[in-house]
């Protein structure tokens, strides 16, 4: 921080803010971050000759512009400006200033990151990799095939119970976000892999003398498989298939949606399959009947074609 005699009442205001934050029980990590953020503000204020914190919104925006000119990334700028807004709000609430110049201070626009997804070729290499010879290989094959066949979130996949398999209709009953239930079809190839896994699952439970479990996907001890375990299994499979390693299970969900869209499936149908309230802020959520959903899915999914 700028030396006290150079900072004057500006430094006193920041010091009082830090004292009150500590009294409120702010964590040491947050306190350190706020101190560093407000040091930047104080240095700017002294350099530009601010006499007090009673400044105009335009003057304060000059500090925000300086952060961008210094090359700070948008996330760092947003964190600093969040601290500045909290500081000026406190100054106003404690009547140290007569108006709050930070009330309209906005964060810089965050760059939009495209979700990672596999190409169709990478997806095929990943899914065709594991030969089914035992419980472990059958489980991996089934996990991968269902993730790509259904576009489920990992939490939804490991949350499936045996009673959620509507095998006659080749449909999964899925409990999604907000405990909203939806029905998701899966194709014939996924059905074959699922059937093989169920056979090996039964053999595994019997061989290990494990009690029956309602969970579809089990660990070696007969308990429900966790999302962390699924991510570890996927990393191993990606390495074995020589596919880009930095891809999460969620990338299979994005791949599912991207490939269906590329093959001509209606965006509204994909929206329904994914269980999204919206695939974009401008797209209204439209329900389709399950029969129509299944027909368009069969036509569009690359692995559903013979």
TrEMBL record:
Pfam families: Phage_int_SAM_1, Phage_integrase
Transmembrane segments: none
Keyword DNA-binding: yes
Domain Tyr recombinase stretches: 113-298
Active site per UniProt: 153, 177, 250, 253, 276, 285 (o-(3'-phospho-dna)-tyrosine intermediate)
Keyword terms of this UniProt record: Cell cycle, Cell division, Chromosome partition, Cytoplasm, DNA integration, DNA recombination, DNA-binding
Cellular localization per UniProt: Cytoplasm
Domain of life the protein comes from: Bacteria
Domain Core-binding (CB) residues, every copy: 8-92
Main location: cytoplasm
InterPro entries to which the protein is assigned, alphabetical: CB (IPR044068), DNA_brk_join_enz (IPR011010), Integrase-like_cat_sf (IPR013762), Integrase_catalytic (IPR002104), Integrase_recombinase_N (IPR010998), Integrase_SAM-like_N (IPR004107), Tyrosine_recombinase_XerC/XerD (IPR023009), Tyrosine_recombinase_XerCD (IPR050090)
Subunit (UniProt): Forms a cyclic heterotetrameric complex composed of two molecules of XerC and two molecules of XerD.
Function comment: Site-specific tyrosine recombinase, which acts by catalyzing the cutting and rejoining of the recombining DNA molecules. The XerC-XerD complex is essential to convert dimers of the bacterial chromosome into monomers to permit their segregation at cell division. It also contributes to the segregational stability of plasmids.
Family listed: Belongs to the 'phage' integrase family. XerC subfamily.
Record's protein name: Tyrosine recombinase XerC
Native source species: Geothrix rubra
Lineage: Bacteria, Pseudomonadati, Acidobacteriota, Holophagae, Holophagales
């Amino acid at each position: 921080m700028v030396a006290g005699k150079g900072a004057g009442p500006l430094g006193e205001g920041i010091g009082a803010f830090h004292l009150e934050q500590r009294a409120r029980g702010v964590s040491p990590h947050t306190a350190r971050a706020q101190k560093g953020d407000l040091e930047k503000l104080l240095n700017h204020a002294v350099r530009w000759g601010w006499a007090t914190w009673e400044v105009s919104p335009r003057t304060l925006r000059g500090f925000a512009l300086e952060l961008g000119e210094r090359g700070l990334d948008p996330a760092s700028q947003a964190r600093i400006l969040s601290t500045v807004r909290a500081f000026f709000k406190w100054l106003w609430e404690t009547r140290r200033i007569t108006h709050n110049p930070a009330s309209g201070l906005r964060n810089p626009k965050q760059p939009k990151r495209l979700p990672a997804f596999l190409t169709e070729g990478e997806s095929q290499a990943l899914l065709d990799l594991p030969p089914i010879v035992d419980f472990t290989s059958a489980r991996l094959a089934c996990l991968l095939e269902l993730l790509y066949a259904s576009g489920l979130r990992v939490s939804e996949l490991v949350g499936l119970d045996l009673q959620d398999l509507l095998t006659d209709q080749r449909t999964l009953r899925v409990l999604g976000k907000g405990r909203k239930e939806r029905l998701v079809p899966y194709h014939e190839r996924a059905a074959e892999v699922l059937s093989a896994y169920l056979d090996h699952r039964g053999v595994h439970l019997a061989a290990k003398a494990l009690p029956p479990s309602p969970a579809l996907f089990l660990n070696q001890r007969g308990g429900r498989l966790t999302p962390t375990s699924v991510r570890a299994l996927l990393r191993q499979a990606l390495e074995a298939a020589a596919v880009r390693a930095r891809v999460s299970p969620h990338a299979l969900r994005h791949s599912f949606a991207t490939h269906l869209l590329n093959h001509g499936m209606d965006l509204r149908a994909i929206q329904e399959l994914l269980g999204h309230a919206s695939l974009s802020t401008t797209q209204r959520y439209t329900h389709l009947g399950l029969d129509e959903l299944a027909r368009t899915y069969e036509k569009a999914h690359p692995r559903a074609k013979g």
